[in-house]
Design a protein that fits this description.
The complex is a heterodimer of chains A (209) and B (328). Chain A is an alpha/beta fold. Chain A is 33% helix and 31% strand. In chain A, the strands form two sheets. Chain A has a six-stranded mixed β-sheet. In chain A, strand 7, helix 5 and strand 8 form a beta-alpha-beta unit. Chain B has an eight-stranded mixed β-sheet with strand order 1-5-6-11-10-9-7-8. A three-stranded antiparallel β-sheet of chain B has the order 2-4-3. The relative contact order of chain B is 0.16. Classes of the chains: A alpha/beta (209), B alpha+beta (328). At the A-B interface, strand 5 and helix 8 of A face helix 8 of B.
């Protein structure tokens, strides 16, 4: 029986920060700190296994049980709505999902608004709630240039400092929802490894407050 | 001569179904066979009872819009005569057609389940819970690699208890609909935020109800602990519902009782469900393999006076388990 706790970490800064929190909560893994080209790391002393995964894939690994736990931003969770437990707001990776448009833009509320976004579901839900007709243009990256090139009127995207927007002549016109990193869990995994996961949750919550 | 041996030839899945059919049969359940298609209207009218919104439909040669069943229960409710004083116990082995969240396309899923309709009482409910637990145990017993007792968990919840708390908070159905997915994902911070939004200036009782709801949604437990917790809030929690929960669990053998976790993040739509709802998990499968509950309210909505309770097993999730990895 596999008694390891399997944790999917998002590649990049968020993953590094998350590992820091997990290490401080007793789930350190020396192998991970000296990686080479490996992507899977195990610590037989505290029975934890980590792997690096594309950020937008963490939720899939967790939903399908390849990982018991994972770290994913609220943006990803709202977009893909995986069937997982969302156990804790880690309070890191803070940013916001926002509507941005070229400076001076105003929506005359007439006709169909063209909205470019990596997060088409979130964009559609936002405007649906307002009863505003939109044409969603799904892009996979460099969303900021869409209004500049006349591809869309506005964008719905993650904003942190706002520098990228400013550099492309865009400003935030509305905040859609705040984003931060969440600890997610596979529902079945939670049931069979409940004690370990609850103990981890307690330690993580303690450190946060 | 041909020394064909059916026992040897049966696949793991076939063996499992055969074993469960015998188990259900011994408890007085009879197989109910269904037609492949139903009128589309049946599902369109009860969309939010369905697991997935999309329905595989077609126009038949008589001009009627029909559907390949996305669900079995609705069809059984519609086709079975309403006999509230009797007890109709049936099981089924059917295929349903749903959109897979992975591929986004329709797929055929095999579902084995049972329904008990009519004068459903504690005896029937206890029998159903027992059969659900035994079904989960059977999965472990028939695993391809290293058959074992099989770690399995039956998660149990009680809708009337949740509903009581919602009523204390004076929540509308619309607010309940928004709270459900948050509770189901054990999202405590989200739950706290929504409750503050829905009940901005709670009085003492509302505050207590809100805190208790958050507590039981976040923290599952063994039956003894959870029942003690529910009893400690007699003024907030429907004690008749707690009595029923305690009684039902008490009728299970000690061995089966050890499989039970009471978990209020298992919340259902109270427009359809009342009383107990439950889900089953087995080690090695990442999603629930069994789901069921009492659904008198759904019966009422369809103009039936009978009570009803049942569960379904999602066999497509178990295929790999019975066949082993090679050749899967």
């Amino acid at each position: 029986m596999d008694t390891y706790l399997n944790i999917a970490l998002p590649k990049g800064r968020l993953g590094d920060q998350s590992y820091g929190l997990l290490k401080a909560a007793g789930l350190g893994c020396p192998e991970l700190e000296d990686p080479g080209r490996k992507l899977v790391f195990a610590n037989p002393e505290n029975l934890v296994r980590y792997f690096w995964v594309k950020p937008s894939d963490v939720a899939i690994y967790v939903e399908r049980g390849a990982a018991d736990l994972g770290i994913a931003g609220k943006d990803i969770l709202n977009e893909y709505q995986p069937d997982v437990y969302e156990l804790l707001d880690l309070g890191i990776g803070r940013c916001r999902m926002a509507v941005a448009a070229p400076k001076g833009f105003s929506d005359d509320q007439r006709g169909t608004l063209r909205v470019a976004s990596k997060f088409s579901r979130c964009a559609a839900a936002w405007y649906d709630a307002k009863g505003r007709d939109i044409d969603v243009i799904h892009l996979n990256g460099s969303v900021e240039i869409a209004p500049v090139l006349g591809l869309s009127d506005v964008i719905v995207d993650i904003v942190e400092t706002g520098t990228t927007l400013r550099e492309n002549g865009l400003v935030v016109i509305e905040e859609v929802f705040p984003v931060s990193a969440r600890l997610i869990a596979n529902k079945a995994g939670y049931k069979f490894k409940e004690q370990r996961i609850r103990a981890l949750l307690d330690r993580l919550s303690e450190r946060r407050s | 001569m041909n020394d064909f041996d059916i026992q040897r030839e049966m696949s793991g899945l076939e063996r499992f179904i055969f074993t469960l059919r015998a188990l259900y049969g011994k408890s007085g359940y009879r197989q109910y066979q269904m037609s492949k298609f139903e009128e589309y209207d049946l599902y369109a009218r009860h969309r939010d009872f369905l697991a997935s919104e999309q329905i595989l439909s077609f126009t038949d040669t008589d001009g009627k819009l029909r559907a390949l069943k996305p669900d079995v229960t609705l069809s059984i409710i519609k086709n079975l005569p309403d006999r509230p004083e009797a007890l109709q116990k049936l099981y089924y082995d059917e295929r349903v057609y749903r959109v897979s969240s992975g591929s986004g396309r329709f797929q055929e899923l095999r579902q084995l389940g049972l329904e008990c309709m009519g004068a459903v009482d504690d005896g029937s409910l206890s029998e159903i819970l027992t059969l659900a637990c035994l079904s989960l145990r059977q999965i472990g017993a028939l695993k391809a690699d290293a058959p074992d007792r099989g770690d399995a968990i039956l998660e149990l919840s009680q809708i009337d208890i949740l509903r009581g708390l919602f009523d204390s908070l004076r929540l509308t159905y619309g607010q309940w609909d928004r709270l459900l997915p948050v509770i189901q994902s054990k999202n405590l911070s989200g739950l706290g935020q929504l409750l503050s939004q829905f009940v901005p200036s709670p009085d003492a009782r509302e505050l207590e109800a809100s805190e208790f709801l958050q507590r039981i949604a976040a923290t599952p437990g063994d039956p003894k602990t959870m029942i003690a917790l529910l009893r400690s809030k007699a003024e907030l929690v429907d004690q008749a519902a707690v009595d029923q929960l305690e009684r039902l669990i008490g009728t299970l053998s000690e061995d089966l009782r050890s499989m039970i976790r009471i978990d209020f993040s298992l919340a259902g739509n109270s427009r359809y469900y009342n009383g107990i709802i439950f889900q089953g998990y087995v080690q090695g499968v990442p999603q629930r393999v069994l789901a069921g509950g009492q659904y008198d309210r759904m019966m009422e909505r369809m103009g039936r006076r009978s009570k009803a309770c049942g569960f379904a097993l999602y066999l497509n999730l178990l295929e790999r388990m019975f066949e082993g990895r090679e050749g899967a």
